[in-house]
Design a protein that fits this description.
Elements (H helix, E strand, L loop, with lengths): L1 E4 L4 E4 L14 H6 L4 E3 L9 E3 L4 E10 L4 E9 L11 H11 L5 H6 L19 H12 L5 H10 L5 H5 L7 H6 L1 H18 L2 H16 L2
Antiparallel strand pairs: 1-2, 3-5, 4-5, 5-6
Length: about 220
């Protein structure tokens, strides 16, 4: 039996009967305890990236190998970089689809989905990106580098009408006046959620923030 020892510069060959002190581990733990010994692949297009409302970040799956032997480990989710491979949607596109789909806001934003002229998922396909409404929305988000709720709220504090015109392009014509009239409420809803998550709503919010920071330190 061949055993690799830390820091993986030497190997020991043991006779099969000599197995004392050997135990199994969950491969998913390895990246958490030894990230510097692991290599991540570029973001994968399958499964597709997703927006995580709890962590307020766009996550993509990435392949993982460990050590010089390049042992394959289970894929993990990590923040999607600003410029992913061409086959992977950009963080702003994933966030935009989540915003229109109701995952960033609450009930008010959730009701918007049924009024859309085009499914939000069209932002995640090459053919959908050719639509004018996709181009306009993504351009606005790209200019302000918005791919998280926290960043969106920061821009709204400077300009509450940010994204109103671009979002209305997604709404069926008969519903645009109603959405425009509710815009202030839609902005306020997202701001309130962000305030709670940042700890402004009490101890529960602070606890979530601590847990989130712990997970980020662990790289998961």
């Amino acid at each position: 039996m061949r055993v690799y020892t830390y820091p993986l510069t030497h190997t020991l060959t043991l006779a099969p009967p000599n197995k004392s002190g050997v135990c199994t581990i969950d491969p998913a733990w390895i990246y958490q305890v030894a990230p510097t010994l692991c290599t991540l692949s570029p973001p994968l297009d399958t499964p597709p990236p997703v927006y995580d409302p709890e962590r307020d970040v766009v996550l993509a799956h990435r392949g993982v190998t460990f050590g010089p032997p390049s042992w394959a480990l289970p894929p993990l989710q990590a923040p999607l970089p600003p410029n992913p491979p061409p086959t992977v949607p950009a963080p702003t596109a994933v966030f935009a689809a989540a915003l229109l789909g109701g995952a960033v806001g609450g009930a008010v934003w959730g009701a918007l989905r049924g009024m859309l002229a085009t499914p939000p998922e069209s932002l995640l396909s090459a053919s959908g990106l050719a639509q004018a409404r996709c181009v306009e929305l993504l351009h606005a988000l790209d200019v302000h580098q918005v791919s998280s709720r926290k960043r969106l709220v920061g821009v709204w504090k400077q300009n509450p009408l940010f994204l109103q015109r671009e979002v209305l392009l997604w709404v069926q014509r008969g519903g645009r006046d109603g959405v425009a009239a509710r815009w202030v409420k839609m902005v306020a809803e997202v701001m309130e959620i962000e305030e709670r998550e940042e700890g402004g709503g009490g101890g529960g919010g602070r606890g979530k923030k601590k847990k989130k920071k712990k997970r980020e330190r662990m790289g998961v």
